[in-house]
Specification:
alpha+beta; Immunoglobulin-like; 3-stranded antiparallel beta sheet; 6 helices
Amino acid sequence: MRTNQKINVLRIVFFIVTVFFLFACKTSDEPNDPTNTTDTTDPTPNVLVKPAILYYYTTNVTQNVATIEAWVKPNEADTKISCEFKSTTETTWQSKTLPNTFTGKDSIKVTFDLTNLTTNTQYLFRIKSSNKAGEAISIENPFSTYIVTDNDHNVYHVIKIGTQMWLQENLRSAHYANGDEIPCVPDSIAWQNLGYNKARGFCYYNNNFTISKIYGALYNWYAATDSRGFISGFHLPSAEEYKTLETFLGGEFLCAAKLEDASGRYWKEEITYYSNGQWTYNVPRTNSSGFTALPSGTRYVSDYSGEGSHFGRLGTNCWLITSSVNDIVGPVIFETYGGGPYGIYRSWGCGIRLIKD
């Protein structure tokens, strides 16, 4: 009796949170440049203003090259902007400084091309900007040239967090590691029937294949836990393995800011969480772990027969293996309310983020 009551309570709580975030958590399917943060107020006369570093992230990382993009507000004239980087085993930073200087209150986008990187290596990078008023230095963020591929030749980067090695992107494979095909099921009613029959299936958010390179694909529980696996040497993480990650990054609430993408191109709301009897608002994302969680969404299945399925943007949902024998199982949900495992149905579609064996 108590078990059933607990399951019902979890269902109610999850439904309320789902409805809230479908309306409150605004995201974009395609990456957008961060909103220009022009300051329209005039600074106090004769007071120097040091630069502000707003966003910074990696793009187009391969085994030997990477591009760093950053948004900076120069403020004073003659503002210099540079990117520093090093491998995690090195002590000395390498530096690339832009030849031009900048001025003004408008945020500007700058780009650094890093070449001759070492394969299978984890790096740290940071942005530095300075003028007569002082120097601004960003938080150090990691990126990796350690690359693996799935059976469809999709490329994934492997990032080390603590003692664990995680994929830096959500899975988007249409095949298992041995080459067997995973059924792609775009039809709403057909997706619902997968759950009734405990059959495997996957889909793309809003059935849009073009955005899968960014967000990955959505798999039901039966596909996610198939023994054939997806990439040799990597597996679906357990709840215990996620707990290790969560603890290393400061616990259930503090970990979200360190796990979620901080480029300003995807998440449109700041993180808010409730802990120890009080709310904490507007927690800035740093992605200091390099995990780069994106709002990849979920495919839901109605409890009512015949209504089929629908999509919703409830943060980043990634399946975990749990010891539960009930319909409700535990994925990780990174959203604007922090992180943590919540119960959902095995017939729903969630992302997959693999961890190294």
